[in-house]
Amino acid sequence: MKNLFHFYPDAAVDSFGNILAKTWEKCLVSFHAKKQYHDNQILTIGSGFIVRASDQVAIVTASRVITDYNRGNGVSMRIGQEYASLDGAKIMQNASQDIAFIKIPEALAGTSIWPLVMGKRDDAILTSSFMIFGYPETKNRIDIRSKGTAFSALNIMVHSFEYEKTSGDLLFPYNPKAAYIGAGSALNASVSLRGLSGAPVAQLLVVPDNGNIVLRPVGVFEEWRQRAVKKLVACSFSDFSDELDEMDGL
Q: How many CB atoms lie within 10 A of CB 212?
């Protein structure tokens, strides 16, 4: 697979990541919990996103986010400007992967949503470029004494990846200085990625008929693995793993 720069050499100059993140921010979900010993502060403990698969719409996040939420301090999840509790929500967690699917609560049923569509597209060309975007905990905190909270999303563009066949993990190189920070944002290039767990990992596809770039969700962001070789780690959806396995067998 070729990366985005093969099709658009000036993609970085034209801020494609910024444009895509702003366009698709409506698919993002954030999860919130009270800060221990601070009753007035609510933290963003994880990200998530809305997907459509066939005629089904659901929220996806990392199982670790649900685990953190259920430790006792979880208060709500947010879609757009609407909040709802996870109490009583139907949640399906994958026993072998760090992925959880949540049925959209009735309280949010009327909320305007813009889901990422899962599955292959016959009209688009796959690339080796991906975007991870969500709400890091830094600067995405809520003080219940204040009116209104402006959330700052972070997007990370990567143009190569590795696939760990045994675990189904996707590994991406990461340079914090290459992370896009929106103009006027309270974030900076050294922002912690805590709170980004559960964010979508979206493959960039190019539609040759019109030149449009579309996003295809292929996995869920887990963590920034800071070992000898620093990598971003994501859990791959089964359909994408199957495609990679098939390509490896050719």
A: 11
- pLDDT band per the 50, 70, 90 thresholds, residue 183: very low
User: Could you tell me the pTM of the whole model?
Assistant: 0.89
| Pairing mode of beta strands 38-53, 116-117 | parallel
| Parallel, antiparallel or unpaired: strands 231-236 and 169-173 | antiparallel
**CB 100 within 8 Å of CB 65:** yes
Tokens of 242: 């199957």
Say if CB 213 and CB 187 are below 8 A apart: no
CATH number 1.20.120.80 is the correct assignment for the domain at 1-250: no
Question: Residue 11: which pLDDT band, with cuts at 50, 70 and 90?
Answer: confident
Please enumerate in sequence order all residues whose Cβ is within 8 A of that of 104, keeping only pairs 6 or more positions apart, or say none: 50, 57, 58, 59, 113
How big is the chain, counted in residues?
250
In a 10 Å sphere around its CB, with 0-12 CB exposed, 13-18 middle and 19+ buried, how is residue 106 labelled? exposed
Q: How many helices (H) and strands (E) does the chain have?
A: 4, 16
Q: How far apart are CA 57 and CA 216, in angstroms?
A: 15
CA–CA dist 51, 49 (Å, integer): 7
Q: How far apart are CA 41 and CA 149, in angstroms?
A: 12
